[in-house]
């Protein structure tokens, strides 16, 4: 997958999976356009990668909760001579019940995960179609298959991305464009730091955690395979397999119990729910 003189646009590149994508694509010879909210971190990452791999790295500071920043990045992209890969990685988690969400906050998450991805994909498609080639990776999550209390909006946006990317691949395959919705599980990126100590979801030899480097390597290796929605890691595949086999009512009960322990959902007062006579159900 040599990329000398090719260009990759990577969002959320200041850490975690985004930074790992930047390093691995630069190592393959891609010139980069990297984005992030933190000006100092972003330019430090850009400088380090440029020196280490001898590639051109352009940094565009952008906060995707701000429409003006998304539009600024789109203007930058449309003026590039070509775009060979888009990695839409910017995102963040929740960790609170839906009723505790503030409207601006939940709409901001939808804007970062969904709106920005849609706009950026739409910006690169004409360029890639003209080239008759290109790759688009949207970083989704195992949460797309495993909704749980405290991650209602996060899981819903990731589920949206999976369906969108599968539909998109059917539209663009004939133009030589490859699409992937990457669904990592627990990854050592700092994303899960809010999980209390002692509840890290590792069970002896069955350690569910992966490194960002391993996730990205697996993603790039599987680009172009028949499976658009890609789950890296054998253990994560097992989790998704059994999750989809379980009757939904059983999964939801288990997810509520586990998430209750992690996010103190169980501290909320419970109502004494009595079944209504059928005549009262409307």
- Structurally, the number of domains stands at 1
Helix content: 40-55%
Separate helix tally:
8
Q: Determine Rg (CA atoms, Å).
A: 20 Å
Shape: globular
Q: Any idea of the CATH class?
A: Alpha Beta
The named CATH superfamily = NAD(P)-binding Rossmann-like Domain
How would you sum up the major sheet?
7 strands, parallel
What is the total tally of β strands?
A: 9
Distance between the termini: 58 Å
Uncertain ranges? 192-205
User: In terms of structural class, how would the helical and strand content be classed?
Assistant: alpha/beta
Entry summary:
The chain is built from 8 helices and 9 strands. The chain is α/β, with parallel strands linked by helices.
Description of the molecule:
The chain has 282 residues and is α/β, with parallel strands linked by helices. It has a single domain, classed as Rossmann fold, CATH 3.40.50.720. 45% of the residues lie in helices and 13% in strands. The chain contains eight helices and nine strands. A seven-stranded parallel β-sheet has the order 3-2-1-4-5-6-9, sandwiched between helices. α4 (103-131) links the parallel β4 (85-88) and β5. The longest helix is centred in the middle third of the chain and has 29 residues, at 103-131. The termini are far apart. 35% of the residues are buried. Mean pLDDT is 87; it is low at 192-205.
